[in-house]
Write a structure and sequence with these properties.
The complex is a heterodimer. Chain A is about 35% helix and about 30% strand. Chain A is an alpha/beta fold. Classes of the chains: A alpha/beta, B mainly alpha. The structure holds adenosine-5'-triphosphate (ATP) and magnesium ion.
């Protein structure tokens, strides 16, 4: 059984905009799955259908094996959600917000248990020192951290996140990633713009453009899906025999500048050079994951 | 299950305590005080007439206005998203708000009633009818607020409505003046006002305001339920 199974999902808005077009994706047990795509790709539209807020024009959505059309309450029972935009609860303290969420979820559990669960949700997101802060005292990043803590304290099997670390500084970002990674859910679906985030967290990625899935696989798969020119600059310990060198190369003093079609070929050659003559200085420039995705999306948009 | 939601709504107001104190207690009671101080030359009926108007104005400005605003906040897409995965149904959250603001406006209603009792005397008041009149007024105005708030779904836009609507409803109703102008009957506030006044012996008990109030209550309730109970909350037909 898949944790989330979306099958041939199509959403046409009343004004005719086709925001999702035959999307099929799934989240298997213990997987973190990323959904990446540019603005307007249809990520939020997909999530809103998953949350039961929009009616799919076509297709089906199953969560923990149950069809959400037939069992809308499966969403409230099994799924916790971290929204894209920070919500503020200006006159509630962080601790009170979490107490309410906990009590909504677990009724009248003993106070000690509640305190324990709340601190277990606050620690990983780094808010343990701010539990008495009022909502109006929180920064945008703290508000996002609180939203993640609210999702964690419910201890539900499925976690859905829409840009969980937008507006968050880099240190906090790493902390939140750690919290998501260690949250030990049955399955996690993460919509994001942040390629580093996807690379840091996701086992698999779907690339969504204009409402369609145009690529999927591990972050590494996506990198290898497309031939990427790679440049290598190196200073060998001894002269490099010319049979090892690629066609495209230049030598300036000790420095060799080599060009390859793909990263794989570049790495192979570098390995050969290392083994045969040794390398004392090396610089590889391969497009980042981010550039790659930009490339993919750019190509597909045409 | 509903009390934690009410508690949360009340706690959420802590920041605005002074604002609420002024709006829910200080200003209304200042107004009531002036009415009473100005009562020397008036008959008890006149005073009761004004105070019953005061009660309905309180319901319109404090209860309908605030409730509309709060409900519109819940119906913002981002808040709907959050609640879609939390245990309480939206209808329950809205019901909690309805009850919270009913409780908050209660002091104005009760003190107004005490003043009326003092001037009218207990014997002229038809208690069961008065209870029914208040019940109708609360439900009619509350469901109207819910229907509007859910429809607008944005507290900033709702603000525009909640600053103008109560004024219109108050100015074009015979709350503080006598009038038999036909157009005033287009105002949904005119009818519960008549119900309350007939229950405290200020006017004949006639079935018409009761019928109209009843029908309006049914219509507003249906609208509120349609907007609050719909299956796909962001799938709005407009
Ligand atoms: N209520 C609506 N009615 C009509 N079209 C809509 C509606 N909501 C979104 N759209 C359109 O659907 C498309 C997908 O929007 P969506 O918000 O799902 O994108 P997104 O991937 O979440 O973008 P972002 O990264 O900016 O959050 C866009 O073209 C958008 O304009
Ligand atoms: Mg979005």
């Amino acid at each position: 059984m898949n944790v989330i199974e979306i099958d041939n999902l199509t959403k046409v808005y009343p004004d005719g905009t086709k925001a999702n077009d035959g999307i099929s994706i799934n989240v298997k047990r213990k997987e973190i799955v990323g959904l990446i795509g540019p603005n307007g790709a249809g990520k939020t539209t997909l999530i809103r259908q998953l949350l039961g807020l929009l009616k799919p024009t076509e297709g089906s959505i199953r969560v923990m094996g149950e069809d959400i059309m037939g069992n809308p309450d499966v969403i409230k029972r099994t799924l916790a959600y971290v929204p894209q935009y920070p919500l503020s609860f200006p006159s509630l303290r962080i601790k009170e917000v979490l107490e309410y969420v906990f009590r909504m979820r677990h009724g009248n559990a003993p106070r000690e248990e509640m305190e324990k669960k709340i601190s277990e949700a606050l620690n990983p997101v780094g808010l343990e020192g701010a539990s008495q802060f009022f909502g109006y005292q929180l920064s945008g990043g703290m508000e996002k951290s609180l939203l993640l803590a609210m999702a964690l304290v419910q201890e539900l099997p499925v976690l859905v996140l829409d840009e969980p670390t937008s507006m968050v500084d880099i240190v906090t970002k790493h902390r939140l990633w750690e919290a998501i990674r260690n949250s030990n859910r049955e399955g996690i679906l993460l919509a994001s713009h942040d390629m580093n985030e996807v690379k840091a967290l996701c086992d698999r990625v779907y690339l969504l453009v204009h409402g369609k899935i145009v690529a999927s696989g591990t972050p590494a798969d996506i990198v290898s899906m497309i031939k990427m020119p790679t440049e290598v600059r190196l200073i060998p310990q001894r002269e490099i025999p010319s049979r090892i060198l690629p066609k495209e190369h230049r030598k300036r003093g000790n420095l060799y500048e080599l060009a390859f079609d793909t990263l794989e070929k570049a790495l192979e050659t570098v390995e050969t050079i290392t083994k045969s003559v040794g390398v004392s200085c090396l610089e590889i420039e391969s497009p980042s994951f981010e550039n790659l995705v930009i490339n993919l999306i750019g190509r597909d948009g045409e | 299950m509903i009390s934690p939601l009410i508690e949360m709504e009340l706690k959420g107001m802590r920041l605005y305590k002074t604002f609420l104190f002024v709006n829910l207690l200080l200003m209304p009671f200042a107004l009531l005080f002036m009415m009473i101080m100005n009562s020397g030359s008036r008959t008890p009926e006149d005073i009761s007439y004004l105070v019953s108007g005061f009660i309905v104005v309180s319901l319109v400005s404090s209860f309908l206005g605030t409730l509309t605003n709060r409900v519109s906040n819940i119906f913002e897409p981002s808040v709907l998203e959050l609640y879609s995965t939390l245990p309480p149904r939206i209808s329950k959250v809205v019901l909690a708000q309805f009850l919270t603001y009913s409780i908050l406006v209660l002091p104005q209603v009760l003190i107004g009633l005490v003043v009326i009792l003092y001037y009218q005397g207990v014997s002229r008041i038809n208690a069961p009818l008065l209870t029914l009149a208040f019940l109708l007024a609360f439900i009619e105005l509350g469901t109207l607020a819910v229907a509007i708030g859910a429809r607008i779904g944005n507290p900033y836009k709702a603000m525009a409505v909640t600053t103008i609507l109560p004024w219109l409803l108050v100015v074009f109703s015979p709350a503080y003046y006598h009038s038999s102008l036909q157009v005033l009957y287009l105002n949904p506030v005119t009818h519960p006002l008549s119900c309350i006044r007939s229950a405290i012996g200020l006017q004949e008990v006639s079935p018409i305001p009761w019928l109209v109030s009843g029908v309006l209550t049914v219509i507003f309730t249906a609208l509120a339920i349609r907007n609050v109970g719909s299956r796909y909350m962001l799938e709005k037909p407009f």
